[in-house]
Amino acid sequence: MNIILLGPPGAGKGTQAERLVASRGLVQLSTGDMLRAAADTDTEIGHRVKEIMEQGQLVSDDVMVEMIHERILQPDCKNGFILDGFPRTVVQAEALDAMLEKQGLRLHMVIEMAVEEAALVERITGRFACAKCKHGYHDIFLPTKVPGVCDVCGSTEFTRRKDDKAETVHKRLEAYRAQTMPILPYYEGRGILRRVDGMADIDVVTQEIEAQLNKA
Ligand code: AP5
Ligand code: MG
Ligand code: ZN
Hints:
By secondary structure, the chain is of the alpha/beta class. The chain is 47% helix and 15% strand. The protein is globular. The site of magnesium ion (MG) has 4 residues, from helix 1.
């Protein structure tokens, strides 16, 4: 099954994708994670990407389309994938359709995670992740069971994203409204868009998504 998790910054795409990887054996394709890996390299593209992300703007469509195209061709995507953070513009959505068609693949479902903007800022500014295994947490909503120790791998080192500052979050939300929301009608028209209440508790959101996927 090939699905898209669509939603504003902090909606819970990464959190839910991680669970679907475990429950359904799908591969998570997070363009944000791919870009952060690129931004960590001392290369021209790395520097450029880092600057754009820290300003809360979108990386160009041609870079993104090439990045996801290369990734989708990898053999591990054959059993199904979850797109997290892609597509983010109509141009990207159209390019995705073209590349899937070429390989005889299709999208089964696009799940929109709807969350109120005030909640998003709180979620993003409280987010942190394990430095070793990358498992995601939240200061209030999803803390580690033992303070300062990762539930999954026992590491005591954690990281926070540079673009998770309140002022950058507002720019990211603006980009979502202006550039990403226009792709909702694109999928709605095809009858594959489903909406879940992303304001619910994390476990409830997981159940809602699983229920939608079971109907596909
Ligand atoms: P990306 O990494 O994709 O960031 P984003 O879309 O802004 O989304 P986030 O990762 O911030 O949120 P999320 O929905 O994954 O939420 P999470 O599960 O972590 O992109 C970063 C940047 O890269 C972009 O700004 C852009 O510059 C660039 N980029 C990426 N893709 C691109 C593309 N295709 N084109 C162009 N540029 C691109 O949850 C957030 C927090 O809330 C966590 O702490 C979590 O524990 C908590 N939480 C989750 N669910 C709940 C819940 N139900 N209740 C309470 N707390 C919750
Ligand atoms: Mg994410
Ligand atoms: Zn860990």
